[in-house]
C-alpha cells in the first residue's frame, strides 16, 4: 500500500520512515527514527529526486508505483550519493529500464565505486553548476554544495515553482510519520534539538562549506517557496523557514545560540559528580538557571556535542585517570576538535587523590588543539572530595562564570 503526500499539485513525497534502526551512520542514536525523503515529479516527463536507504526500499517502491500509476519513470535525479539516499538506485533502474540518471561528474564517479549498474547508451546525463534541465512545465537548475556533507553533493532548484531539493541541508533526525511539513509539527519545541544534533554532528566540521551554500541560497532566496530536504520535514517559505535558516547560519559560524552554561562531568566514584552538582547549585543560588548538567559517561557524545554548539559557556569537571584525562571526557574533547567547534568559554574543575593532572591537560588541549577558545583562570582542584577550601573555590568559580556569561 502506498504512503505518499502531495508537496505541490504535481510533486509527491514518496520516501519512507525508519523506526528499526538504532544508530544513524552506525554512530548517532535515533530514538525517534529518521525519514528517508524522495520526491516524484509528474510533468510531461516524470522525474524521481533521489532514492532511499535499502531498509525503506519496499515502501519506497510501492509509493513510486502508486504515484506513477502506469506512467514510465523518465528520469532519476541524484543530488547526493550517500547510501541512505542512493542505495535503491539499482532497484529503480532494474524496474524502470527506460530511466535516465541525471547527476554530476563526482556523483557518477561514486556510483561506479559503489557498483551501481548505470552504464549503457543514453543511460546517464551529466550536469554541472548553473546548468538547467526541463521536464516540460518545470525547469530546474543545479547548485554545487560540496562537503555538505560529501564532495559530490548538489542541490536542485525548480525555478518554475520555487521548490529547492536541498539534499542533506536543512534536514533533521526523526521520522516524519505522516507529518510532511514543518508547520504541521511543533518544530521549535520537539524537533529543534534533533535538527541541531543532526547538523552539528554530521556537517559540523564543514561550517565554511555550509556558509558557502547559504551565500548561494541567499542570492535566490526570493525564488525559494518550498525546501525539500532528504531527512525530516519539508519547509514552506514563511518566517519559520527564515528562522531555521538563521539557525543553520549560527551553527555553521560556530556561534552559540544561547548565553548559558553546559556542565559536563566525568566521575568514577561520585566525588567529581558531587563537585559538579555543587557547582550547579551555586549557579541556581545566585539566580542563574540557564544551565544543563550531563554525565559524559552515560550520555552519547552526539548529544553532548549538540548541547556544546548551543551554549556559550562550558564547565568541564574531570577526574584524573592514569595521570591523564578520563577517557570518555577525552573522547568528548576529541569530537569537539574533529567537528571544528570554536568560540566558546570554558572553566575547569579537576579531581585527583594524589596527582591531579586533568586540569592542566584539558586546558592544554583547549588552548593548543582548538580555535578561539577562552579558558577562565579560576580552575578548581578537588583532592578526592570537596572540602571547605575547594567549596570556596567553587563559589568563586560560580561568580566568575556568571560574570563571563553576562559579559558575553
3D structure, described in words:
The chain has 13 helices and 24 strands. It is of the alpha/beta class. The protein has a seven-stranded mixed beta sheet with strand order 1-2-7-8-9-10-11. Strands 18, 19, 20, 21, 22, 23 and 24 form a seven-stranded mixed beta sheet that branches. A six-stranded mixed beta sheet has the order 12-13-14-15-16-17, with no helix packed on it. The termini are far apart.
Main sheet: strand order? 1-2-7-8-9-10-11
In one word, what is the shape? elongated
Instruction: Give the end-to-end Cα distance, rounded to a whole number of Å.
Output: 55 Å
Q: Say how many strands there are.
A: 24
| Helix/strand structural class | alpha/beta
Mean pLDDT: 96
**How much helicity do the residues have?**
25-40%
Report the biggest beta sheet as strand number plus sense, adding barrel if it closes. Answer: 7 strands, mixed
% residues in beta strands: 15-25%
Radius of gyration, in Å, reads 24 Å
User: What is the count of helical runs?
Assistant: 13
Flag low-confidence runs. Answer: none
Structure at a glance:
By secondary structure, this protein is α/β, with parallel strands linked by helices. The protein has helices at residues 57-68, 83-86, 89-95, 105-114, 187-190, 192-203, 207-219, 239-253, 271-285, 301-310, 327-338, 358-369, 388-407; strands spanning 5-8, 11-13, 16-18, 23-24, 28-29, 34-36, 39-42, 46-49, 75-77, 100-103, 124-126, 132-134, 139-144, 154-158, 163-165, 226-228, 235-236, 258-266, 291-295, 311-321, 324-325, 345-351, 374-375, 380-382. It has a seven-stranded mixed beta sheet. Strands 18, 19, 20, 21, 22, 23 and 24 form a seven-stranded mixed beta sheet that branches.
Amino acid at each position: 500500500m502506498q504512503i505518499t503526500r502531495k508537496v505541490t499539485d504535481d510533486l509527491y513525497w514518496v520516501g519512507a520512515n525508519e523506526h528499526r534502526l538504532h544508530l544513524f551512520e552506525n554512530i548517532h542514536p535515533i530514538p525517534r527514527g529518521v525519514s528517508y525523503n524522495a520526491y516524484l515529479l509528474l510533468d510531461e516527463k516524470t522525474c524521481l529526486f533521489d532514492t532511499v536507504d535499502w531498509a525503506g526500499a519496499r515502501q519506497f517502491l510501492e509509493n513510486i508505483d502508486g504515484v506513477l500509476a502506469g506512467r514510465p519513470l523518465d528520469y532519476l535525479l541524484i543530488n547526493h550519493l550517500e547510501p541512505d539516499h542512493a542505495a535503491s538506485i539499482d532497484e529503480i533502474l532494474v524496474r524502470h529500464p527506460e530511466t535516465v540518471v541525471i547527476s554530476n561528474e563526482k556523483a557518477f564517479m561514486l556510483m561506479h565505486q559503489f557498483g551501481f549498474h548505470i552504464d549503457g547508451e543514453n543511460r546517464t546525463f551529466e550536469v554541472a553548476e548553473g546548468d538547467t534541465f526541463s521536464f516540460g512545465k518545470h525547469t530546474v537548475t543545479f547548485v554545487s554544495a560540496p562537503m555538505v556533507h560529501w564532495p559530490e553533493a548538489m542541490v536542485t532548484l525548480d525555478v518554475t515553482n520555487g521548490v529547492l531539493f536541498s539534499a542533506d541541508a536543512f534536514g533533521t533526525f526523526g521520522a516524519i510519520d505522516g507529518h510532511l511539513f514543518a508547520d504541521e509539527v511543533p518544530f521549535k519545541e520537539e524537533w529543534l534539538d534533533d535538527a541541531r544534533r543532526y547538523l552539528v554532528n554530521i556537517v559540523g566540521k564543514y561550517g565554511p562549506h555550509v556558509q558557502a551554500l547559504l551565500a548561494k541560497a541567499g542570492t535566490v532566496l526570493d525564488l525559494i517557496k518550498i525546501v525539500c530536504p532528504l531527512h525530516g520535514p519539508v519547509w514552506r517559505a514563511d518566517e519559520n523557514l527564515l528562522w531555521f535558516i538563521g539557525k543553520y547560519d549560527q551553527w555553521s559560524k560556530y556561534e552559540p545560540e544561547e548565553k548559558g552554561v553546559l556542565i559536563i562531568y566525568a566521575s568514577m566514584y561520585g566525588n567529581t559528580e558531587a563537585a559538579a552538582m555543587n557547582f550547579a547549585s551555586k549557579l541556581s543560588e545566585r539566580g542563574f538557571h540557564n544551565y544543563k548538567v550531563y554525565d559524559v559517561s552515560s550520555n552519547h557524545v552526539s548529544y553532548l556535542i549538540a548541547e556544546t554548539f548551543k551554549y556559550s559557556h562550558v564547565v568541564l569537571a574531570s577526574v584524573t585517570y592514569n595521570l591523564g584525562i578520563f577517557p570518555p571526557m577525552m573522547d568528548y574533547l576529541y569530537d569537539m576538535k574533529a567537528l571544528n567547534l570554536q568560540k566558546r568559554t570554558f572553566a575547569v574543575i579537576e579531581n585527583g587523590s594524589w596527582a591531579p593532572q586533568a586540569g592542566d591537560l584539558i586546558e592544554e588541549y583547549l588552548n593548543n588543539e582548538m580555535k578561539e577558545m577562552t579558558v577562565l583562570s579560576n580552575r578548581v582542584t578537588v583532592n578526592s572530595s570537596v572540602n571547605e577550601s575547594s567549596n570556596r573555590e567553587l563559589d568563586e568559580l560560580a561568580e566568575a562564570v556568571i560574570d563571563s556569561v553576562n559579559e558575553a
